[in-house]
Input
Amino acid sequence: MRMSRLTDRLATCFFWLAGCLIVLLLGWFLFKIMVEGLPQFSWHFLFGKPEEILAGGGVGPQLFNSFYILFLSLLFSLPIGVGAGIYLAVYAKTNRFTGLIRISVEALSSVPSIVFGLFGALLFVNWMHMKFSILGGSATLALLNLPVLVRVTELAMRAVPVSYWEASLALGSTRWQAIRRAMLPSALPGLITGVTLTAGRALGESAILIYTSGLSVSRHFPDFNPLAMGETLSVHLWYVQAAAVVPDARQIAQGSAALLVIVVLIFNLAIALPCRMLQKRLTGGK
Amino acid sequence: MDTRPGFHQSLKELERDLLQMGTGVEQAIRGAVESLASTDEKQARQIIAADDHIDSMMLQIEERCLRLLALQQPMASDLRLIGMALKITTDLERIADHAVDIAKATLRIAGEQLVKPLVDIPRMADISMRMLQDSLQAYARRDVQLAAGLASREDEVDKLYSTILRDVIALMGAEAGVNRQLTHLLMAAHDLERVADHATNIGEGVIYMVTGKRKDLNV
Amino acid sequence: MAQPKIKVEQLNLHYGENHALHDIRLDVGENTVTALIGPSGCGKSTFLRTLNRMNDLIENVKISGSIRIDGQNIYAPDADVVSLRKRVGMVFQRPNPFPMSIYDNIAYGPRIHGIRKKAVLNEIIERSLQQAALWDEVKDRLHKSALGLSGGQQQRLCIARLLAVEPDVLLMDEPTSALDPISTLKVEELTRQLKEKYTIIIVTHNMQQAARISDVTAFFLNGYLVESDRTDKMFTTPKDQRTEDYITGRFG
Output
């Protein structure tokens, strides 16, 4: 009896410590990055063009490209990913074929991103002659996101109580009506969370884009041409640390890192708040 | 697999109580008829006193039935059993009342010389008592055949009653004392005829309880 | 005698290898309440779901035989399932309102069948809630979430939701088993009133409920329809010994 109380206390202590450790680690990590990176922020840094030789370059185009590529990749991957997810959750019968699909999706989502990068380089850059371009980067990024989106959608749909589906059908709806009116509104929060997480990770992808969208930016800014070269913020971060010759490389890297973290944070918040409001409206406000 | 053993045990106890009451009523009728035949005043008084006990048995059975209906929601054969138990207990109580009436008749003609030796009355009594016995047997053994057989014997009892009625009318004359005695005897015979009737009712109850069908044995 | 509203003949249902319903034959009269009783797993819910083809949603289900509603076989190859489910509505065991406002819940059915005008919807919603004996309780909070209602109110809401599409037949799958006794009685009373306009079939575990509200009772056992008869006859003098044993609790 006393033994179990002791182990209970030990376990509680351990969990507390683990939690505190995480918070501390996160705090220290953020602190370090911000302390070194924030001083770099200036109007020119945020929106100016980069320099190859001289100091004082900015990351404006890279920031733009990060979002542009993200946007294009979601444009490609969302319809297919969400569609496949809905198919698996609602329409697919339980047989070997769908089992195969699921295993494939699982396998794809665990492929290292650099492998995707190489695949994208071979397919889009070389074989389709896209060369290093925003389009090539978006397409490859779309491939990376696809399995995750399928999984996220399927899970979000399956989390909706099956009673909504049954109730809708029992009222004489078609399957699409049931999905659109009864299931998607409930699945939407989970779906949006999943997509946001995916997008957040995609903003930070570097390996995959090195081989597909390249290491330079177009001369104009902003340039909406998808065939232009599209170095993103995260790639630039790597490039500046690894291969740049400008004298303020380290500062640019630190500034980029801080910017990246802040951008992802803002991005998540910007989605989460409207999502919360949407959820309230869809569920009629309790 | 009986999912309501407690309830079904209560039903068995109900049956047992009913049969016990039946035994008491049988004894009452037998005692009453004996006392009439041998003008035994003491026995007659005992019969009259014992009626209270029979009445209280009836009330107990009624209570038990109502309680089972309220608390157990019986269905089908269980429902018929309880419904018929209520009916049978009433028939038995009425039979007991007739026993009391016969005993009272004994007291009223006590000490007198019988105008005519009793022949038909004992015969009626015999048949009626056997009918009562059989109706209770039919109940105990759920014997539908036995119950149905009561119909023909009731006819016999009716015939005997008609004979007695004729004889009494023939014997009635100018003497008040004789008329009084004859009237009491006639009423006793009537009581016996009613006993047979009630026994038949019990038989009908048994048939409905077992088969769910209604059969009129009193035609 | 008038044509029965629903005529089931030689109905057999297989879940894969499992032969779940054997040769079911049943007539259901118009504007009656038919109760389906039987022990767990006897097939009564499965049978109920064949009446609006909800079993189609389950994989590996094979159905043979015919079910005619108003003379038309609902399992004919060219039968329209969507319009069937509009005519034959279902209330489930656990109340399942959508996570929307009360208004939107009831408007759901009419909207999917193309009714959009606000005036028409308002009228339908009031009528349905009146029929479900819920109007007075919710008329001031139509735009609040349906999830804020009590269990009994939610179930009546589901009934109102189903009435809004103007069905002919109401199927109820143990509609009160998740409700408290007072709500149960309210739903039973509602069923009694609805019978005047609709044909109702109700699956229930509670024999006393079947006895209270139904006109006809059908007893299922191991996938067979053992007996069906007028309720008063069924509960005083059942014909089959198995029915007798079940009703008196001599077997579970």
